[in-house]
Amino acid sequence: MTYLFNNPTQFADELVEGFAAAHRNTIQRVNGGVIRRHKTKPGQVVMVIGGGSGHYPAFGGFVGQGLAHGAALGNVFAAPSAQQICQVAQAVDAGGGILFCYANYAGDVLNFEQAQVQLRTQGIDVRSVVVTDDIASAAFAEQHKRRGIAGTLAVFKAAAVAADAGKPLDEVVRIATEANDRVRSLGVAFSGCTLPGANRPLFEVANGKMEVGMGIHGEHGLYRVDAPSADGLAEMLVDKLLAETPLSIGSLSGARVGVILNGLGAVKYEELFVIYRKIDQLLTKHGLIIVEPVVDELITSFDMAGVSLTLFWLNDELEQTWIAPADTPAFHRGNITPAVQFEENIAVAVQPIHKKQPLKIGSADSQAAAKVVLTALEAARDVIELHQEALGRLDAIAGDGDHGIGMQRGLTAAVDAARAALDTQAGAGTMLTAAGDAWSDRAGGTSGMLWGVILRNLGYAFGDEIKPDAAMLAMGVSNALEAVVSLGKAQLNDKTLVDVLYPFSAALTRSAARGFSTTEAWTAAAEIAGQSAEATKNLAPKIGRARPHADKSIGSPDPGAVSMALIVDAMGRIIRRQCA
């Protein structure tokens, strides 16, 4: 259980506020996350990490001397938004370039890539290294598809030490990339985790059973086996990781390896030491030389009972990064010379990722349409709130269970932004772009980014001068579909919201070409959207967090597709009532 919370939708914000207060001598809170309180040398490379909340010490706990310069912190189990990432990056930029380093999850990739594009337009040299250490999530031949789990620490540390040593960005990227190539992890779990406000865990494991190969977002493992003894688990983890020894290592005898035994939340230190005892024996028996092992909680999943083992295959260069001193709220190694601190409450100039449309006064027709847009957004928010728990359960079948709460946060922010736009007499286009910006920033994750794109494209098509008609609506949705596919890379039948957006867009386009009214066009397309969402239950996911759990997903519709169909239906009721 997660026992202590207020409003679950505010949980991530409140935990960051408390974390910053507890470690104010080490870190400084900024919009979007936290940064080092210690000044960085002018002209040096800085590293920004990040991910969803619910994994402490990752990711904020790794900010400090010897590790990250800043961390963008998203909602519970949801990637930080591109805006958050930009804000943190701008706060730590020292003029020598920025390395983004993050785990390989669809939402993180989407938002960090978008932030990278935006920062480059501002003249900042930004590169990315994506961590792919989880051997369970894809075959060796498809390492680029693997998730990032506890091995992120080794890659973060290698990059940070190189950056603080004054190496140029190309060298920092090379070292981080080599670290990622040499790190392997595998995790197991004996129970699921419970999100704040939820009354049951995302999944349950029968007594005496164990899930093998899950990620860090409360998702199922890839398969279930009888739970072994501590020694039996040590043998399984070691055997599977040694079977993936990098080709560059050659003989195991004499090879040097960093070891991370990570507790995922409910397995406590005494148990970790029991299993580490056997891991140490097994690795030593194979002739390996263990260098500065770490037995700790490093990347957790609320109250999940589980562990992961990471092997970091060292060379001379990487070993120096692994043993180098560090001083952060959650990770300490050796002694480090204190750096000069920032002044309290440093002010950081941040440029917005999306240039906000001026809230100019719209025409009378466009203002009238804006009122309908606001009412439609409110209806969408209400229907998602009604189905929030069900969407979360659906998402937990093969994902992380956060879809309902993420959609609620995004829609609430969109409605607030739309109301503010209406108060300024903005037109429908400006209102939609403002709502899209607010949704993507507040929700984060994959769905936040994509719904922001959808609303913005609708806004661009509507404009602020004339009354939107079916043709403008069809064009806006068509443009939104093109942008969603370009950003998210999902195609039809990949089991995503594209499987609803594509036929919905096609139906709108057909109706508009036939001269249908907005009401007629939307009503016909909404029926198709609902049918398309239901049909996703027959598909296997080919992209995103559900991909490694394809078998579990078959028979259940995609949560992103279902939430889109719910929104389309709710908005349709408003359109029929107000636009007939």
Contiguous runs where pLDDT drops below 50 for at least 5 residues: none
* Envelope shape: globular
> How much of the polypeptide forms β-strand, as a percent range?
5-15%
Mean model confidence by pLDDT: 91
Q: End-to-end distance, in Å?
A: 49 Å
Gyration radius, rounded: 24 Å
Number of helices: 17
Oligomer: single chain
Biggest sheet, spatial arrangement of strands: 1-2-4-3-5-6
Q: Could you characterize what this model shows?
A:
- This protein is α/β, with parallel strands linked by helices and about 575 residues long.
- The chain is about 45% helix and about 15% strand.
- The chain has helices spanning about 10-20, 80-90, 105-120, 150-165, 170-180, 230-240, 270-285, 315-325, 365-395, 405-425, 430-445, 445-460, 470-490, 500-515, 520-535, 550-555, 560-580, and strands at about 25-30, 35, 45-55, 70-75, 100-105, 125-130, 185-190, 210, 225, 255-265, 290-295, 305-315, 325, 330-335.
- The protein has a six-stranded mixed β-sheet with strand order 1-2-4-3-5-6, sandwiched between helices. Strands 9-8-7-12-10-11 form a six-stranded mixed β-sheet, sandwiched between helices.
- Helix 4 packs antiparallel against helix 5 (about 170-180).
- The radius of gyration is 24 Å and the shape is globular.
